[in-house]
Amino acid sequence: MAIREFVFGCALGVSVPTLLGAQDARVATRALQDSLRPEIERAVATGAWARIDAAIARLRAAVASPAGRADQWAHYDLAYALHRRASGMIVEDSARAARAILEEAVRMSQRAYELGAGGTALALEGAVTGQLAGAGGGLAPMRFGPRAFRLLDQAVSEAPNDPRVALLNGITRFNAPRAFGGGPAKGEIEIRRALRLFDADRTTAPQPTWGRTDAHLWLGLALVGLNRPDEARAEYARVLELSPGHKWVTEKLLPELDPTR
């Protein structure tokens, strides 16, 4: 324990064991995040949604703990895991079931931002809000679409050099209808900017470090939308270099490029 923490704690009448206990709890929360982050990425790559469900349960417990309640990155990680789980449900045509998960992800990303996670959390909220626009049905595009863009614009303003902010902005623009300012051309521009930012990214834990594999995957999808299949195939090959056997790429995206095989 730092001397100044010891002196400050004693001045407030806080016992040394209490301070040590709080410190140990923070360390435990960090250790949980360090173990779950690669587990979530592996689960996404293999389509092992039950493992993401288990990670979500542990992260929910973490943010409810005394140490986790004030931890912006624990809240961010929970929002991110929920976002990943909902994305899988949407791909599997279970958008209606994904809504409650997306709504929880919005709340967790908002809390992460309130606790100091900055534009990184704001971009995640914007991306999840964009998913609600697509998954909500009815008037959801009108209700959530403009808000998603506002959040992402603010996130880019607050964190212009964060590759994950650029990536989430690009994915959301790609998925938005052209009539709402989206489409593959808009997505390509921002996703390529994200890849340039990843080249210079030196982010370390506890801040999030995910995204490079996803950037190549979503750039490939944007290129397919722009009728540039050879370039898309090269991006999918890069995904497989970074994440060998990636299920979505091997079982769906590459076969869709070569439907006669």
The string of secondary-structure elements, in order, is: HHHHHHHHHHH
Helix content: over 70%
What's the count of strands? 0
What value does the Rg take, in angstroms? Answer: 20 Å
With helices defined by DSSP (H or I, 4 residues minimum), what is the helix count?
A: 11
Distance between the amino and carboxyl termini: 62 Å
Architecture overview:
The protein has 11 helices and no strands. The N terminus is likely disordered. It is an all-alpha fold and 261 residues long. The termini are far apart. It folds into 2 domains: 116 residues, Serine Threonine Protein Phosphatase 5, Tetratricopeptide repeat, CATH 1.25.40; 96 residues, Serine Threonine Protein Phosphatase 5, Tetratricopeptide repeat (Alpha Horseshoe).
Walk me through the topology.
Elements: H1 3-11, H2 16-46, H3 49-64, H4 72-91, H5 95-135, H6 140-158, H7 163-175, H8 184-200, H9 212-225, H10 229-242, H11 247-257
Helix pairs in contact: 2-3, 2-4, 3-4, 4-5, 5-6, 5-7, 6-7, 7-8, 8-9, 9-10, 10-11
Concise synopsis of the structure shown:
By secondary structure, the protein is an all-alpha fold. It is 79% helix and 0% strand.
Key terms:
261 residues; mainly alpha; Serine Threonine Protein Phosphatase 5, Tetratricopeptide repeat; 2 domains; 0% strand
